[in-house]
Amino acid sequence: MTKQEKENYKNRLNEKKKEIVAHLSEFKSDSLEIETGDVQDTGDKAESSYTKEFLLSLSDTQRTRLTAIDEALKRIEGDDFGICEDCGKKIAKKRLTVIPWAPHCIECQKKEERGF
Ligand SMILES: [Zn+2]
């Protein structure tokens, strides 16, 4: 994988991450802000660490995806991005283009879905 390709995937991952987080802050300002009251020591937390409340307010799908995106962003800094976590084979580029946070190749994903 070239540096340029990695850069592209990284941008897509960061965009997707922003999408989820932005969606959540909209939701938060609508419903949760009034209840919290205690606002001290917010705002100075590292962007990559989420508060418990934040994670709890995510749906399961969003939470799973956000975790997967973070994992992929970690992998992209090393050399194992695009390598299947189960079988160690390269994940097809087509698949990575659609789901850049995918940790498994399509074969392993299918196996998992079948319950093996
Ligand atoms: Zn695999």
Structural features, described:
- This protein has 116 residues and is mainly α.
- It has one domain (3-36, 50-114): Four Helix Bundle (Hemerythrin (Met), subunit A).
- The protein is 62% helix and 0% strand.
- It has 6 helices and no strands.
- Helix 1 packs antiparallel against helix 4.
- The chain is globular, with a radius of gyration of 17 Å.
- The two termini are 30 Å apart.
- 11% of the residues are buried.
- The model is unreliable at 32-48 (pLDDT under 50).
- The structure holds zinc ion.
- The site of zinc ion (ZN) has 8 residues, from helix 6.
In short:
This protein has helices at 3-31, 33-36, 52-57, 60-77, 93-98, 106-114. Helix 1 (3-31) runs antiparallel to helix 4.
Defining traits:
116 residues, mainly alpha, Four Helix Bundle (Hemerythrin (Met), subunit A), binds zinc ion
What secondary-structure arrangement, pairings included, does this model have?
Layout: H1 3-31, H2 33-36, H3 52-57, H4 60-77, H5 93-98, H6 106-114
Helix pairs in contact: 1-4
The structure holds zinc ion.
